[in-house]
Design brief:
Blueprint lengths: L3 E5 L6 H10 L4 E4 L14 H14 L4 E4 L11 H21 L3 E4 L9 H17 L7 E5 L12 H10 L6 E6 H6 L7 H14 L5 E6 L1 E2 L10 E2 L9 H8 L7 E4 L16 H11 L21
Parallel strand pairs: 1-2, 1-10, 2-3, 3-4, 4-5, 5-6, 6-7, 7-10
Antiparallel strand pairs: 8-9
Helix pairs in contact: 1-2, 4-5
Length: 308
Amino acid sequence: MRPRLGAHVSVAGGLPRAVERAVLQGCEAFQIFTRNASRWTGRTLSPEEIREFRRRVEAAGQDPVVSHAGYLINLATRNPALRRQSLDAMGDELDRAEALGLLGVVVHPGASTGSTEAEGLESIASGLLELLGKRRRGKTLVILEHAAGQGTALGATFEHLATILTKMRGHRRVGVCLDTCHLLASGYDIVTPDGYADTFRQFERTVGLDRLKVLHLNDSRKPRGSRVDRHEHIGQGCLGLDPFRRIVNDPRFAGLPMLLETPKEGGRSAGALQADPLDERNLATLRALFADRRPGAASRPRACSRER
């Protein structure tokens, strides 16, 4: 079984249009925003739009579909007003995903501004327990995205993720998303064969492979340990092709959604119903790596020598 390759796609013109774009690009799974990612509130989704979205996903055989939570949400904050806003917004994200039949909501754990690391991790766990406790009959997962480690962002180590899970008493509705760019930026060596093997041994020992629900496949413009989150096209950054070749052929990840968040083509009409040629190119690059073990198939990443 191969992974389910896809991308983050635009919802311009309505959620059903996202399904059409995903089909045009040859996605087998995809990610969306269900509300404006840079605002606290989102437009109301009509029952008709929800039904049509679900109908088109089923007809297209897209599985799974996930959403990405808005960027303003900070579950780690100790500021009472921001915490309440964050919890309300995350609750709305979960409700929308549940209505749309999505696998889960990918969310950045948060940043420990105004608090210690330990307090921030406790705040994330208690907030998520509160939200899931109010939605006991739901199926939608919270999918914590491993962070690049910029600033005071939490979740840049596997130990951070494990701590949140432990504080949530191993809640069944919490999963993890790993991003290849974030792994490199936060200091994990997934470029060399030994580093790749060690990284996922650490993840399995610390978090558990059963918690891995989504992979974001992005090359990185910045070197290992930079703690800077800058995505690049597949094979054109500091990762090169080899890590992606290993990931898409790794039997441990068979069947998992592997989704691009690489740069899109600029200057396009937001509502245009057409495939993004850069997504198409990156997906073709990944598909060419399936079982690619030819002599000389290895590639060297871009020179990225200034590692911390």
